């Protein structure tokens, strides 16, 4: 298994017990005024997993990486993560990311590494890429992991995942 995939699995495995140490009341406290709580951050990561799951599958079924973005704040608001049980959110986040790890690990190497010039990563990626540059499905998958780690760092600001 490639190192980045192993690191993704380790990130999930290391984060779950730490997330479970956060109490229900602690999970509801926003990081700062006009910022998300831990519940909302994990909820956002569930939304990201949902949207990227489709991208990772479709990226193997078609010949471009053109995908729509989504209203991140709207999704968090509409899913009412602040009112959901913390343990339920953590369990869903874990399960979905383990499934994404499975999808990534079993993706066609050819599809993962084929450069694609028709994409929307200038709009949808965490680490954006100009539309004029070719990208790969593997880049999009690694970008997903970077995004996930960025948000875990917001929950655990004193140490990097």
Describe what this molecule looks like in 3D.
- The protein is mainly alpha-helical and 161 residues long.
- It has a single domain (3-155), classed as Four Helix Bundle (Hemerythrin (Met), subunit A) (Up-down Bundle), CATH 1.20.120.450.
- The chain is built from eight helices and no strands.
- The chain has helices at 3-21, 24-27, 38-61, 72-79, 86-105, 109-113, 121-124, 137-155.
- The protein is globular and about 45 Å long.
- 27% of the residues are buried.
Fraction of residues in helices?
55-70%
Mean pLDDT: 97
Biggest sheet layout: none
Strand content: under 5%
What structural class do you assign from the helix and strand content?
mainly alpha
CATH architecture tag:
Up-down Bundle
Based on CA inertia axes, which overall geometry fits? globular
What order do the helices and strands follow? HHHHHHHH
Oligomeric assembly: single chain
Number of helices: 8
CATH class: Mainly Alpha
- N- to C-terminal distance: 20 Å
Number of strands: 0
Number of separate domains: 1
Question: In terms of per-residue confidence, which ranges show pLDDT below 50 for 5 or more consecutive residues?
Answer: none
CATH superfamily: dinb family like domain
What is the radius of gyration?
Answer: 16 Å
In the CATH hierarchy, the third-tier topology is known as Four Helix Bundle (Hemerythrin (Met), subunit A)
């Amino acid at each position: 298994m490639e190192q980045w995939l192993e690191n993704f699995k380790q990130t999930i495995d290391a984060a779950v017990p730490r997330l479970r140490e956060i109490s229900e009341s602690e999970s509801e406290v926003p990081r700062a005024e006009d910022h998300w709580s831990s519940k909302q951050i994990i909820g956002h990561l569930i939304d990201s997993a949902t949207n990227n799951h489709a991208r990772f599958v479709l990226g193997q079924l078609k010949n471009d990486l053109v995908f729509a973005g989504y209203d991140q704040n709207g999704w968090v608001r509409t899913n009412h993560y602040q009112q959901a049980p913390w343990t339920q959110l953590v369990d869903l986040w874990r399960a979905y990311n383990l499934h994404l790890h499975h999808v990534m690990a079993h993706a066609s190497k050819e599809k993962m590494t084929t450069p694609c010039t028709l994409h929307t990563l200038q709009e949808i990626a965490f680490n954006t890429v100009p539309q004029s540059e070719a990208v790969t499905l593997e880049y999009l998958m690694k970008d997903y992991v970077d995004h996930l780690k960025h948000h875990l760092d917001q929950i655990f600001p004193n140490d990097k995942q």
